[in-house]
Amino acid sequence: MNSISQPCRTIAWFRDDLRLDDQPVLRAAMTRGDGGCLPLFLVTPATWRKHHLGNPRLAMMAGGVTALKKGLASRGLDLRIVEVAEDRDVPRRITEIANQVQADEVHAGSEFGVDETRRDESTEEQLAREGRRFVRHENQVILPVRDIRSGGGTPYTVFTPFKRNWLKRLDSCGLPELEIPTSSGIGIDAPSLDGEITTEHFNDRHPIGLFPGGETEPLHRLERFLNGPIERYHDDRDPPAIDGTSTLSPWLACGSLSPRRALHELVTRFGPEPSSWTQGPATWLSELVWREFYRHAMDGIPRLSMDRPLHGWTDRVAWSESSEALEAWKAGRTGIAIVDAGMRQLAATGWMHNRVRMIVATFLSKHLLVDWREGERFFLSSLADADFPSNNGGWQWAASTGTDAAPYFRVFNPDTQRKRFDPAGEYIARWAPDHLDGTAPAPMVELKEARARAIEAFKMAKNA
């Protein structure tokens, strides 16, 4: 390792932070790396399969990496792409690369989940044995999640007090600064690390152009959203036929857009005091805080990333083992109009309106009594915005097993939801027209009976 008087060499290890804007990993690596900086991205197909990431999400990743490589080249840095067979091999491979290029420090963004935490701890230990440092940065969140705890020092499991504390901390600490990397840096020549993204690893399943990879499109969408639609967001976010949401989630999921950038643009547009904002911007800020909340919970409650519910008693629910029910739900052939429309929108686009996500998730876990983990995994494999903490949190909320979950006896009625949020049938007409022309399959279940069955199953599990 270099002595203190010698130039420092660094590695900037990109993961779910595929951007140059507001990038503390790259900024620190370039600032510290006066002897050279090597940007690195690892292709880990076995890990992606283990974590159920599907083609829509991998396509976002591929687009982000491609754009990142071009952006880094303009700063004199060459992003190297290296394939690693298994996640357990990552610490060894990172250490080998650090030794090869004589990097004193490896910088990376913090990730959330038990597997990710263990991988990083092992990486830190192996690098330390070689006299090298592993430095992690908070770049997936606006405020560090471990700085927000309940009065007893435990993680919050209910959103409202978490948000109250989050806003209080934001007010006391001020708006976090954006971390913009320097314009140019010193690259490290490492020809043996040459790699490329191949279609074998990144197959684009959703329509080309729907979610273009990289940083340019999300920044444009953010600007358009803040220039008008956000003022009506509190009303327009629920009807699925209205283009009333920001649709920024795919870029937030792969890190091509920073949540801090989103907050900065909000503050620039509406002022530094969220309490003075109108209802639309205030409601959208709550969505950003929900994203933080799910990361906070996953970081503080490890079992949430281990296929386990927050409320242990819900594992005693007698989940249905009907593969036919699950497959009909996946295919959008349940006979329930808004459920079928949502699942078909997902299949066609790699995205689904958030209100409809709640409806289809409740239908699967309550009306069909299919284990919520089946739905969680299917969403990860199907969504362009597949995001482990948010997806897990949303599914556990819908199934009444997790944080801030509604009581198990509150069950969305999908027909009532359709009448309320798609009264003219525009969403149904676009994605499930067979429900309007009389050719749709008959409903799989009678909703009232299925609701009663679900309530009884949860009641028995809780009292067992």
What does this structure look like?
This protein has 3 domains: 10-139, Rossmann fold, CATH 3.40.50.620; 140-178 and 215-300, Serine Threonine Protein Phosphatase 5, Tetratricopeptide repeat (Alpha Horseshoe), CATH 1.25.40; 312-463, DNA Cyclobutane Dipyrimidine Photolyase, subunit A, domain 3, CATH 1.10.579. It has a 5-stranded parallel β-sheet with strand order 3-2-1-4-5, with helices on both faces. The protein contains 20 helices and 5 strands. By secondary structure, the protein is mainly alpha-helical.
Keywords:
464 residues, mainly alpha, Rossmann fold, Serine Threonine Protein Phosphatase 5, Tetratricopeptide repeat, DNA Cyclobutane Dipyrimidine Photolyase, subunit A, domain 3, 3 domains, 20 helices
Query: For the residues shown, what is the average pLDDT?
Result: 93
**Helix content percent band:** 40-55%
What would you give as the CATH superfamily of the largest domain? DNA Cyclobutane Dipyrimidine Photolyase, subunit A, domain 3
Give the overall shape. globular
Write the CATH fold name of the largest domain. Answer: DNA Cyclobutane Dipyrimidine Photolyase, subunit A, domain 3
Please list the strands of the largest sheet in the order they lie side by side.
Answer: 3-2-1-4-5
CATH class assignment of the largest domain: Mainly Alpha
Secondary-structure element sequence? Answer: EHEHHEHEHEHHHHHHHHHHHHHHH
Uncertain parts: none
The strand count comes to 5
